[in-house]
Automatic annotation (TrEMBL):
It comes from Pseudomonas yamanorum. NCBIfam families: P_estr_lig_assc. Keywords: Endonuclease, Hydrolase, Ligase, Nuclease. This is Ligase-associated DNA damage response endonuclease PdeM. It comes from the Bacteria. One of its GO terms (molecular function) is endonuclease activity. Residues 30-117 form the Calcineurin-like phosphoesterase domain.
């Protein structure tokens, strides 16, 4: 079973998952930010030598989560597809085959900046597509990490990573969750997505992902 770290936020219990997602047990819901399906194929279409199989690997990780946690809904916090080049037949066929295996699952996409360039996913993926914010319980589910007037924001967009420093010049960049007073960030779910280093702030907590576990940074 994928490792999870339970936290309490806005009077709700959420599980931070080592597979770079959040599970909301009360809603039987998975929250995923920045999947960027088809990013590698988009780069290859431009002649860039990038790895193959990232879409398959991302979908296999998602399958593991759905097998491990009772789930009725998956909400993507923006950037489902990377760009126009993500509509390559190999990427879309893999997504369609995955969707057929999970036809009863409710899927929602909150449009992110890359979704606006890529266009909405094909209709046969049977995915509801909405603009931010999506208000759900005490949370405003968004792509952009901008504070909401009345709800705690769960967002993606920046692909947060945290730099752990060792002796001398040794350091390690790890994907992380950053929980703030008004806005909390999810790591990018997709492989081959890069990351932006966040810092430990006075009113925030950072949880890094490493060795298939979630670790609080003290």
């Amino acid at each position: 079973m994928p490792v999870h770290y339970p936290i309490h936020l806005a009077e709700e219990t959420l599980w931070l998952l080592a597979d770079k997602a959040v599970y909301w047990p009360a809603r039987k819901c998975l929250l995923i930010a920045d999947a960027h399906f088809g990013k590698a194929s988009a780069y290859r279409s431009l002649g860039q030598p990038v790895p193959q199989g990232t879409t398959t690997g991302n979908l296999q990780r998602l399958d593991r989560l759905l097998a491990a946690y009772p789930c009725e809904q998956v909400i993507f916090l923006g950037d489902f597809l990377h760009g126009p080049g993500s509509h390559a037949s190999g990427t879309l066929n893999a997504l369609r085959a995955w969707r057929e295996r999970h036809s009863d699952l409710s899927l929602t996409l909150i449009r992110g900046n890359h979704d606006k360039r890529a266009g909405d996913p094909p209709g046969d993926l049977n995915m509801e597509v909405v603009t931010e914010p999506l208000l759900m319980g005490p949370f405003a589910l968004q792509h952009e990490p901008q504070a909401h007037a009345s709800h705690h924001v769960l967002a993606g967009h920046v692909h947060p990573v945290y730099r752990l420093r060792g002796k001398g010049r040794q350091s390690l960049r790890l994907p992380c969750f950053q929980l703030g007073a008004e806005v909390s960030l999810l790591p990018a779910f997709g492989a081959f997505t890069g990351g932006y280093c966040v810092t430990m702030e006075e009113d925030s907590q950072v949880f890094v992902i490493g060795d298939h576990e979630v670790w609080p940074v003290h």
